[in-house]
Amino acid sequence: MGNDKTRNKSKDAQTMGITHCSHPFLQGRGWRRGRLFILFLLLFLTLNFGVKGYWKIKSYSFQSYFKDVWEICHNKGFNEDYCVLVDFSRPSGEDRMAIIDLKTLSVLDTGPCAHGKGEGNSAWKPRFSNKEGSKCSSLGHFKIAEKSYSANVGLRFALDGLDSSNDNARRRHILIHSSRYVDIMHHLTSYLPLSNASWGCFTTSPAMLKKIEAICDKSKKPILLYAYKYV
């Protein structure tokens, strides 16, 4: 019994020695790492929500196109009540895509819209191309064409490009569709990281896509989509 107690005390002393010798060093290093992580997280959140806040209070940039798109809709046989605008000057995770009520000249609904991940693109700055295989977004006027479904993206709308800047839209399989990735990430960041969510398609949230579907389903005339970017 005495020997057992001695051995236990010896083990306890060794354990205490390890605890008192090594733990403060490890604790100090872990605390420094934890503090750096917390500082980084706070900086990220401050910058991110600062950017999001800026775009929330910034006046919409869509109004200046209301008259032009209505005239195109009127002259070319499009629906004169609604259209869709995509302002690539705005961040992808913010209100970049808008459904416009042309009767009241107001913004009806808004949502995020990812841009293509092709070469030269970044989360902050899209690059535009009409070239097949570029995986870039295109600017210009589009006719929102037939609705369909696919195993990969679900509900989708085909697009016909009406300008020289986007007349390869059909051959490039440029669509309007949604992505859960875009839906989740736009709550976290103003600038959606590039991903396979878009190879040039107008990829938005499921909720926004449903709103576009609603106006397309009840329209007897095609809906116009106009994508632009301020120089």
Please state how the strands of the largest beta sheet are arranged side by side. Answer: 3-2-1-8-4-5-6-7
Helix tally equals: 4
Unreliable stretches covering 5 or more consecutive residues = 10-21
Briefly note the structural class of the backbone. Answer: alpha+beta
- The number of distinct β-strands equals 8
- The averaged pLDDT comes out at 85
**What's the main sheet like?**
8 strands, mixed
> How do the SSEs run, as a string of H and E?
HHEEEEEEHEHE
By oligomeric state, this entry counts as: single chain
The N- to C-terminal Cα distance equals 88 Å
Provide keyphrases for this structure:
alpha+beta; 8-stranded mixed β-sheet
Structure commentary:
It is a single chain. By secondary structure, the protein is α+β, with helices and mostly antiparallel strands. The chain has helices at residues 2-57, 66-76, 180-185, 206-217; strands at 82-87, 97-101, 106-111, 140-150, 154-161, 175-178, 202-204, 223-228. It has an 8-stranded mixed β-sheet with strand order 3-2-1-8-4-5-6-7, sandwiched between helices.
